[in-house]
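Assemble and predict.
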Amino acid sequence: MVAQPKLDALNARLDALTQSAGGGWLGAAREDALGRLKAVGLPHRRDEYWRYTDPSALVSVAPAAGGEDEEADPFDEIDCFEITIEDGEPSWRGDLPEGIDIGSVAQEGSADIHWARDIYGVLEAAGSRPVTRSLAMLNTAFATDGLLLHVHGTVDMPIHIRYVGGGDPILHHCVKIDSQASVTLLESGYPGARFNTVMEVDIADGGACDHIRIQGRGADRHANTHLFARLGSESAFKSFTLSQNGTLTRNEAVLDLTGDDASAHVAGAAIGANAFHHDDTVFVTHGALNCESRQVFKKVLRDGATGVFQGKILVKEGAQKTDGYQISQSLLLDDDSVFLAKPELEIYADDVACSHGSTTGAIDETALFYLRSRGVPRKDAEDLLVLSFLAEAVEEIADEELRQHVTDLLEGWLRD
Amino acid sequence: MLEIKNLHVKLEEEDKAILKGVDLTVEAGKVHAIMGPNGSGKSTLSYVLSGRDGYEVTDGGASLEGEDILEMEPEERAAAGLFLAFQYPVEIPGVGNMTFLRTAVNAQRKARGEEELSAGEFLKVIRAKAKDLKIDADMLKRPVNVGFSGGEKKRNEILQMAMLEPKMCILDETDSGLDVDAMKLVADGVNALRGEGRAFLVITHYQRLLDHIKPDVVHIMADGRIVKTGGPELALEVETNGYGDLLESA
């Protein structure tokens, strides 16, 4: 039973939303999500899962006023297939690369039969079972559009989802990766002053997905993103997110290792100052034999910024030979910033290796002196040490060209 | 070149005097060695000269080519021509050795109003110098000092020195942790840089480094002061008799 204030907040929020028309597989998924949402209500600071991040700006009826992302395309120099989502509407041009079909939720939602029926809201619902994820439910119920990507071969060029425009969009993407198929997904920009995105990635046996996201550095960003991945046997999923600034960012990643010998990595590098509040919340479930998972999160905070990390590794009964690793670290550049970390391990198998660590520290004075004694001015020396600190997260990008590209981008951001 | 006058230094955090009136003049083109027992203040002297935090100069001063360096930031001292080869070179994960060196070289050139080296020019210079020190391409690419052996770290210090072309080089126990072959390699690197008016201050516990880097002048430091100065024979005396006799007679 949802308490009255929560119910009022939910009703106010729902009144401001319109559920898109349409029956088909999408209609059913939306109804289901709305039902689940009504049973739990919207998140509140008092909820344990939102203890370190106040969700009020994410659940309010209207978003705070905010500018648009005026950042140049960060993947400009990368040869990729671009899908633009402008003011919430996806479009793409030219011949698709081999190995992928692209559609949109708005156009294909009314079909009676569609592969997305087994993914849309399904991974989200599974991920919302151990922990309430109301904003993901809200997304499933009210998303106005999103991409349906079906990867059935080796896509030899990254697919770049580029957000531009403004408003308060709710977008929901589904990615289906067939057995032995692989793709690199890039995401950049942000779709509005406030946005709520869900991406569900279903990877069949032996499939692979690399996901690299650049959330930009707009100061007004209010973001709530969810990434749900379900991994089959011998499949691999890697996700990396870079963000700077932003007022409130909560990136949730829910990774479910369901087949033996699968590997899931999720990493993030974030830099912020002042009102910056950045929250990475991760839930990795090991449900099969001999799987490997890795979480690497680094935050650089100054002038009163706040960083949050909530990361969990759940090893189910029978998930023997699990290798789980988690590290969350913050670099505080002054005394006013705060880093809150909640690492959790829950293990029901007896033959596993799981480790976690969390550290908070200041810049290494000896290293700073070393660089300065070589003639590097203080600010540049600090920037190099910030890059050094973030490197372990950036190194999670498998592709060398993309990794170098992100490093160069980061260097440029630090210099600006 | 380097002139230190009546230098008194204490730790910033506590009331503990470390240097108690150091007087030392190093002329251009000369190699001076400072020897002394543990805790005599040798490393502190090198840190104070290069501008490390944590020390307070209570009296006296130091100048490089007539310029007061104690008021300068560490990077300004470097641009003025001072270089400290660290006893324990610092590891910097995630920053390529090459990136670090190019940043340093160009920062100094910029500070001196010289044009920055292009990536191509830089590469040409560093390849030649690295080869002399037996530093391979892989070591240049790897993160600064990460996973380097003791010898590799010290060679990397000398490579930095060769690239930055300082006027006044301070070597802080560069021989520590080195085997004979590595010490020879490091010494060869240093000797190659001798001349052209470049001065060296070599800090060491032992005489053996001075077999390879022949000093013009040897100073003995004890309890925060230079207690004895002489020629290379002074280093041999230390090797034979230890510091005890010397300090008593001083």
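The mean pLDDT of chain A is 93.
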